[in-house]
């Protein structure tokens, strides 16, 4: 009962978060501003958006190829098409249940290539380790290149908040911080979060060691760099879809990209959270909420459309191959 409740929460909470962020995002806009956002979406140059979708597709193909090297290291003869079916289906599953794509991939290659689920999951976790390291490096670079703007933004925000707050409100803030600290301490103790973090870090270490000791590590690393280069190109090319973002600085681009990547990683494919985080990041760099929101939705909708189309094709191919094998 408890496990079923937790599984249900894992599905519903990210979805609820996305809906909540959409609601609070659009409640801040007037009717005229909503029409302006709609205008950006309609009048966007979809040639650049289509090119961005092509770059994303190339990254998915490279991911399927990269996976072959890891599977080969286990003595398994991989099939590129089956890898692609598993990856495309996994991305689509992530839109429904966050982080379910990994298990879906492992289950599909178990059906298609008779790869044990635990070994399939092990290879997927190892690749996620390297992807996580790359994302952290991009995020650190983004923060370093935009440190002045980020610091000034939060300094101005805090100064404004404290200037408007009276002594009673400041007391409430202090009490709230103390309560939050007590709750955080209780959660860490109750759910042994410290131990879980230690296990997670050990998993990262083991995954990275697996990659580093494999036979074709340089090809694997080259594909990893290509995948993330395609992600960045996909995001970069979309700034030319609307005129107000076509001169976006590298620091703004990297910060928005990093925010969007974390949104995708921890929600239903970034539903609600992706445009919300990107718009708020771009505000730091002088863009309006209207422009930032429009840009965020353009990128998210185009990439989600690709995932849905690719997922449907991969599900259909998987079903067809399964029927063919049984007949």
Task: Please supply descriptive tags for the structure shown above.
L-PG_synthase/AglD; single chain; mainly alpha; cell membrane; 327 residues
Topology at a glance:
Elements: H1 2-27, H2 31-43, H3 46-73, H4 80-96, H5 101-113, H6 117-145, H7 147-164, H8 167-190, H9 193-213, H10 217-237, H11 250-266, H12 273-284, H13 289-326
Structure overview:
The structure is a single chain. The chain has 327 residues and is an all-alpha fold. The chain has one domain (33-164, 215-326). Helices cover 85% and strands 0% of the residues. It contains 13 helices and no strands. Helix 2 crosses helix 13 (289-326). It is globular, with a radius of gyration of 22 Å.
Secondary-structure class: mainly alpha
Q: Enumerate the spans where pLDDT stays under 50 for 5 or more consecutive residues.
A: none
Q: What is the count of DSSP helices, taking H or I runs of 4+ residues?
A: 13
Task: State the share of residues found in helices, binned by percent.
Answer: over 70%
Radius of gyration: 22 Å
Main sheet, how many strands, which sense, barrel? none
What separation lies between the terminal Cα atoms? 39 Å
Q: What shape does the CA trace take? A: globular
Q: List the helices and strands in order.
A: HHHHHHHHHHHHH
Mean pLDDT: 81
How many β-strands, per DSSP? 0
Number of domains: 1
Transmembrane segments: 12-29, 41-61, 129-150, 170-188, 218-242, 248-266, 273-291, 297-320
Keywords: Cell membrane, Membrane, Transmembrane, Transmembrane helix
Subcellular location: Cell membrane
Organism: Nonlabens ponticola
């Amino acid at each position: 009962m408890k496990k079923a409740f937790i599984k249900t929460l894992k599905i519903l909470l990210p979805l609820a978060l996305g809906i909540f962020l959409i609601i609070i995002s659009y409640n801040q806009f007037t009717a005229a501003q909503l029409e302006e956002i709609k205008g950006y979406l309609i009048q966007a140059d979809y040639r650049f958006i289509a090119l961005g979708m092509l770059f994303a597709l190339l990254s998915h193909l490279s991911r399927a190829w990269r996976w072959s090297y890891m599977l080969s290291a286990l003595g398994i003869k991989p099939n590129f098409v089956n890898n692609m079916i598993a990856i495309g289906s996994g991305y689509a599953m992530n839109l429904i249940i966050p982080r379910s794509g990994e298990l879906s991939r492992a289950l599909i290659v178990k059906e298609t290539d008779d790869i044990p689920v635990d070994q399939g999951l092990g290879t997927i976790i190892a690749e996620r380790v390297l992807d996580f390291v790359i994302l952290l490096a991009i995020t650190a670079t983004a923060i370093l290149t935009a440190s002045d703007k980020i610091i000034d933004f939060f300094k101005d925000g805090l100064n404004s908040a404290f200037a408007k707050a009276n002594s009673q409100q400041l007391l409430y803030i202090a009490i709230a911080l103390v309560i939050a600290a007590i709750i955080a301490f209780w959660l860490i103790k109750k759910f042994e979060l410290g131990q879980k973090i230690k296990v997670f870090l050990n998993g990262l270490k083991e995954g990275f060691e697996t990659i580093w000791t494999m036979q074709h590590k340089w090809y694997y690393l080259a594909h990893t760099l290509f995948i993330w280069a395609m992600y960045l190109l996909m995001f970069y090319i979309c700034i030319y879809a609307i005129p107000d973002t076509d001169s976006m600085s590298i620091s703004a681009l990297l910060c928005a990209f990093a925010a969007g990547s974390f949104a995708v990683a921890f929600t239903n494919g970034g539903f609600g959270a992706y445009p919300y985080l990107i718009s708020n990041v771009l505000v730091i760099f002088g863009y309006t909420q209207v422009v930032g929101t429009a840009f965020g939705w353009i990128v998210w909708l185009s990439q989600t459309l690709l995932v849905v189309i690719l997922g449907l094709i991969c599900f259909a191919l998987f079903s067809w191959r399964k029927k063919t094998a049984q007949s």
